[in-house]
Amino acid sequence: MDIQSWFENNGNYSDGLELFAQLPNCNKIQLRNFARENTSNFIKLKYELKKALMAGIGESIQEKILEPAVPQKPFENKPEPLLQLIIKQSADQSFEKETMAIYPMELHETYRKRVSNFYKACELKFQLNSLPEGDENTALKIILQLEDLWTRIDCAWMILDHWKDHKRIMPVNESEDFTKLTPIQLLMKRNQLESRISKRKVTIKSMTAEVEASPENRTISNLLNRKLEQLHQLNIDLETIRNLLKNE
User: Residue 75, SS3?
Assistant: First the structure.
């Protein structure tokens, strides 16, 4: 079974997990997290498989048999039926048991943006598939937009999952108003943040190993969560400053 067939036939969790495990870019840590079947994991599993499908991965994960070449049909400018179905049913299927109401008010905007960006990614995939052959410049622009959207969607999932797993709120906005800084001050701040992020990642790697060795130690686990939240705040600030420097 491939991913497309899995969606068309409302595949079960175990089959979906097997398809996810066979993806060439399968995240082994995420695969281990998917080992337990529950509503939250099923929603995330569907999301990962949809993302792979729209990226052109896993159209058929099984080894394909070579067939004689056949003449190509004339180009038809129409969206893929399955992707139309995904967009139409996403609100009813993927998000039906994972509503905004389960999150605190501070995360409602993150939830809305995640859903909105998913629909935008679907529409961009339609546009990409409808481009005439050879229109590489437009294709590149759309691909870059898609990559940015998937990055934002992944970030939103991370923030929302952090709440569901730990009942803690990840930062969602910059820590201060950086528009008041001069270009020189922005450069200095950027360099400081890059250094702090690098050091924080080393600390988190070490603490993650401690948590894995002693998962029952809630003190270390809570400290790790705080460090992860601080790292996310630093990344938000760094991205904000980089965008401000681009506009200078």
Answer: coil
